[in-house]
Input
Amino acid sequence: MGLIEEKGRKSRKNKNIQRTVLSVVGIAGILAVTAMAPTVFQALPQIMGKKRYKLAFEARNAVDRLVIKGYVRRVRRDGKTYLEITDRGRQHLRVEEARTRSPARAKRKWDGRYRLVMFDIPEQRKSTRERLRRLMIEFGFMRLQNSVWISPYDCEELIALVKAELRIGSAVLYALVDQIEQEYRIKEHFGLS
Output
């Protein structure tokens, strides 16, 4: 396995741990830090074979990254430390949930219209622009140009969630289109008749 493949695998695993920790805290709303570790261990059966202390270390690192991202916060009550999900964390969970049930991935009856998502995000927010492009791929959109993506399925709610999550409301336009040039490429891509 190459170095790049190994880093990619570790990055995906770290994101999965963060997602699981955030989901556990999101479901509970607030969770004692001491209760978090056993809960996370039960929620991560795919990491079997590792020592319990290694999992605890990875869970603590995931919590620290979630705090830095602003998805959870530590609060003290009655001498105990708790993790509490933030509004930003809830928003992120909604986007993650939307990713798993992406309209473009679920084959549904096509209504004959296309959904265009166009964006113009300044260079100062390059990482946000790249994250949006990755999300468009994950959601099953087809890239027409670097900042123009298309889907044949209704995804207005999904785009609204992404705009709120990334804080890019005015930089993204959503449009319904009845006709588009080179339509045969799009139909072929999505398996439409």
